[in-house]
Write a structure and sequence with these properties.
Elements: H1 2-25, E1 28-33, H2 36-47, H3 61-64, E2 69-70, E3 84-91, E4 100-108, E5 113-121, H4 126-129, H5 136-139, E6 144-145, E7 151-153, E8 165-167, E9 170-177, E10 180-187, E11 192-200, E12 203-212
Antiparallel strand pairs: 1-12, 2-3, 3-4, 4-5, 5-6, 7-8, 9-10, 10-11, 11-12
Length: 215
């Protein structure tokens, strides 16, 4: 009887330990930051906003404060809308006190989708001028994040691996926190998340580097 109790107790301890190890393997960790308080708040929000596979859902209130609406372009659009979507939102993306018209495009490049952002004055006619057959009025802006197929090096802070970067396929999610607009950047691999402020042009100020603890 004592032997059976010991066996049951041992199995229980192993099960609890395995569960703790599993839960500890999931989620994001703060690796480097310029604003530790901000990064801690974002990290806590992210930990509350993952699905049962540890993937971010982007459903937290700070993301939902920005209201995206589909863009209706002239002309015949692609049949597969999952791989060719355009959405727009008004927000103060660069935090200069003026509203911006921000257009988010999602296009597939030989498989998974990748996001880009294009930024205009709030009253810009760019979307009225663009069509599915001619996106040049949209793409011509100098204020954008357009790196599909390229890289976003993580070089703002010293880290052990100086070659870390987001690559090829990007997911971009602006969000609001205490009235300030930030941008969450990651790639299809999902190892790193960058929290940044948009500065204009193609420039960003990196504030937090978060790493998925499963890598």
């Amino acid at each position: 009887m004592q032997l059976m109790k010991r066996l049951v107790f041992s199995v229980l301890i192993v099960t609890i330990s395995a569960g703790m190890a599993w839960s500890g393997e999931r989620g994001y960790q703060l690796v480097a930051s310029r604003d530790s308080k901000l990064c801690a708040r974002v990290l806590e929000a992210f930990r509350e906003d993952v699905d049962d596979r540890g993937r971010l859902r982007y459903r937290h209130e700070m993301f939902r404060q920005i209201v995206w609406k589909p863009v209706e372009l002239k002309g015949q659009g692609p049949k597969m809308r999952r791989c060719s979507t355009l959405d727009k939102a008004l927000m103060d993306l660069d935090n200069d006190g003026q509203q911006d018209l921000v257009v988010k495009t999602t296009f597939c490049m030989k498989g998974p989708p990748s996001d880009s952002l294009y930024v205009f004055p709030a009253d810009s006619p760019a979307l009225d001028q663009a069509s599915w057959q001619d996106l040049s009025p949209l793409l011509a802006t100098n204020d954008k994040f357009e790196r599909t197929g390229g890289t976003y090096p993580l070089t703002s802070f010293p880290m052990k691996n100086d070659s870390s970067a987001l690559t090829a396929l990007f997911a971009i999610h602006p969000f609001l926190l205490d009235g300030v607009t930030y941008v969450s950047l990651t790639d299809a691999r999902g190892e790193w998340i960058v929290i940044a402020r948009y500065l204009r042009g193609e420039r960003f100020e990196d504030l937090c580097y978060l790493r998925d603890s499963r890598f």
